[in-house]
Design a protein that fits this description.
heterodimer, A: 289 residues, mainly alpha, MetI-like fold, 12 helices, B: 303 residues, two-stranded antiparallel ribbon, globular
Chain lengths: 289, 303
Amino acid sequence: MTVQEGLVIASAADAPHPPRARRAQFSLGSWLLPVYTALALIFLLIPIAYTFVFSFNNSLKSNISWRGFTLDNWTNVCNAQDVCAAFGNSILIGVVATVVATALGTAIAIALVRYRFRFRSAISLLLFLPMATPEVVLGAGLASEFLGAGVQKGIGTIIVAHIMFCISFVVVTVKARVSSLDPALEEAGRDLYGSPAQVFWRITFPLLLPGIIAAALLSFALSFDDFIITSFNSGSATTFPKFVYISAARGIPAEANVIASAVFLLAIVLVIGQQVTAASRRKRLTRVG
Amino acid sequence: MAFSAFATGTAREQVPRRKSRVALLLLLPGILYLVLFFLVPLVSLVITSLQAPSAFGDVGSYQTAFNWNNYVVSITQYGDQIVRSFFYAVLATVFALLFSYPLAYFIGVTARPWPLLQNLMLVLVIAPFFISFLLRTLAWKSLLSDESGFVTGLKALSLLAPDAHITGTPVAVVFGLTYNFIPFMTLPLYAALERLDTQYLEAGSDLYARPSTVFRKVTIPLSMPGIVSGVLLTFIPAAGDYVNASREFLGGTGTAMMGNVIESNFLILLNYPAAASLSIILMVVILAIVTAYVRRSGTEDLL
């Protein structure tokens, strides 16, 4: 996932649901629009299907032509050791960057909604700019800073870079959640003599948790799939996307397809699970209300 | 603030209530981090872009200077790549808009009575995000290669000259950019169209406007915020991308974009001033285009 992808997801997740239209608008599309939509969605899925199918290819060195079906790639993913090491690095970097960025970003989001302070618009601009800057510029800028400071590039510098571009997305995602929070709940906690810390951990934090989890998942996804910024700041360390880029010239092992497909399936299960729980929660709420 | 140019669904703002040291404590770590690792790097990029080669240094060693000439050299030497970047990015943005609008309209307006279907289709739109960007592009490379069924089929039907290729050409690069950034266009469009009040459309047709007039005079203006964010979200990453245009992916010898030049100057040739000056040019041009575009589309309060 690239940096701007996060923004797309964050802003769409943020959109309030309008009252449903009572009547179906069928005059406009007739059959043309549904058919187009179906074809368009199939088109979007073609490369995913290709990657998935070729994860079962009984390939030799490069995985370009179909040589027969096998499950070996799935059962022995770590046969291609480089892939597994790179994948491990990506997970490590993703987890550390996510934890730090989520903590820093959540604090900023709470401050932005709840407090008055000077330089507000300057801070908003500082949070917005990383999302509007092309990744090459972010990567080259950080790399030139490291160069000037004489920092040795490696996993540490990759983590530093990933935290940087994740913060803004965490802020956008969590801010929406903070804004929708009813302040009366916290006031009730204070009225009942809860200390500020108790009010925060017992009331504010649990209510913000869905937003924080969404922000963390988004950060992890951004970090896990980042290639451009990573390639400028990685030195000799490899991540999964960097491995794919480097081996593109001589052929990608099928194990890379296995990892990508597995990650894809996991993500889809998570998203659909979230959709289902959200839908059932909505149903419950409407029944009560 | 600037955020709303991108986030089409801004939550309603609460009135900030308290003034406190707590705010400082909450803001400081994150803001300091961004200053240190976003703002300082940009300054460092400007300084690097003005450096001159060290008098007695090796390749890749430079000293601080005010060598404005670096910019002139970059623009004259890489003029083609600079023009190409923005040309490809504009094409990809236009194609993505044409592809996405009907899709987003169907999901956001036509499918409204079926929320579950809406959500399922949205998941399918963002599904490509969950598979590695690089593998997606490599999949297209194989699917469009000379040996692929698609290309041999086109050649058998004489739609493509026998010695023609798709991969390695500008067509493939623009195709790749368009494909990779379609979800960036579809989601903001969907977010805008989902909130479109269909009563306005009914009002238009009640007043005897033809469907095409209703679309042009009502639907498009009402979905303008979505179009603006979609265009920005597609254009910015497309202009800076170098994966699609690189030779191991969909590009060829004559398709290099600014990102490719920045990458090779920085990581291979170790010509940091050239890479830095090109980065600054890319950033300045993008900011200028974004500002001008947002002003023109009549949403100047967004930026």
